[in-house]
Amino acid sequence: MGKIAPNNLLIYVLTVFFLIINGNASAADRPNEKKSTTLTEMQQIVAKASERASNWDGPTTGPIGVHGMRVAVVCEDLRNGGVLGVAKGLGEASDVLGWEIKILDARGSISGRNSALETALAMKPDGVILLGSDAHSLESRLVKFKKEGIPVVGWHVGPNAGKLASGSVAMNVSTDPYQVARVTAMKAVVESHAKAGVIIFTDSNFAIAMSKANAMAKIIQECPTCTLLEIRRVPISQSAQQMPKITRELLKRYGSRWTHSLAINDIYFDYASPEFTKTGRDIRLFSAGDGSPAAFMRIQAKMFQYGTVAEPLNLQGWQLADELNRLLSHQSVSGYVMNPHLVTPENIAYDGGKRMEFDPDNGYRKIYRRIWKR
């Protein structure tokens, strides 16, 4: 190697140090992750995720249900089918437990979130459940509940599923966003015989959304004969207004190169699909959540959308009640994280699919009732 001038030595050392540290940090994110997944391995992972969800692998023991609790439920946006589905399941579980719940809708805005949390704090509730909002960005407000001794659990509140080691939210009820995203992207690769031209839709306002989008992008980029055309950031709360125009623009820009789309939520496809119909383009759609009724209808009809890694929304509402009940009983949360389930035209007739939802046939209602002695 040639000599390095003295005045450039410090810059060289710092550059090498940065590259080493940055490389190590990236590897540390997923220390056991292989560099790439073969097509055969992807086929096996997709097949596993497509199996029926008839076996319960969650908790079977826990504290008796605490009666008469008042719970504030802060919803990011009840126009989002995922949030609405979880709220419905939570309502069912609360009726069983004898809880009074107050639904507060932030309607997808900063002012709405602030107002909802202020109302929740003023209520002096026994517990708080956060649905769909990013917990990290709200920590300065959520910490007030922690100081008052009010336990908080959440659904889709960050990129990490299960028991949370830091922050004011004790539990993030969710399937693993990383695994959900990988299954979604792998399905597109497998379905296209590794020839997909992909556009990904995500919402940069939420860490969980960007985590999903980046994981999907990585799978597509690792496929040597696939093409990642673009990652398009569109706020979920503005999808109805923006998606028709954006879809027309992308169709014009990429033409026949655009064959598949992935999204962090089915709602993007609600407003993109009519544009595909108008142009006669058969773009194949796969979503990394949450399994909306509209998505189920598209999958059943084989109209553009052929898969969604659906969340068991109603079940997760019951799980939120159980996790909060554990905290109210001065016990730790269960930390249960359900494996991803891919809904396709082949399995949509099972696990609630006939009702246009993913509701596992695993008897979870009876199991939670048994735990709570209800």
Number of helices: 12
What's the total count of β strands?
12
Largest beta-sheet characterization? 6 strands, mixed
Residue stretches low in confidence (pLDDT < 50, at least 5 long) are: 1-31
Rg from Cα: 22 Å
SSE run: HHEHEHEHEEEHEHEHEHEHEHEH
CA distance, first residue to last residue: 75 Å
Q: Strands of the biggest beta sheet: in what spatial order?
A: 2-1-3-4-6-5
User: In percent, how helical is the residue content?
Assistant: 40-55%
Q: Give the helix/strand class.
A: alpha/beta
The quaternary state of the protein chains shown equals single chain
The percent range for strand residues is: 5-15%
Shape: globular
Mean pLDDT, nearest integer? 91
What's a quick, concise take on this entry?
The protein is α/β, with parallel strands linked by helices. It has helices at residues 6-29, 39-49, 81-97, 110-123, 139-147, 177-191, 207-222, 239-254, 267-279, 293-301, 313-328, 364-372; strands at 70-75, 100-105, 127-131, 152-155, 162-163, 171-173, 197-202, 227-233, 260-263, 284-287, 305-310, 341-343. It is built from 12 helices and 12 strands.
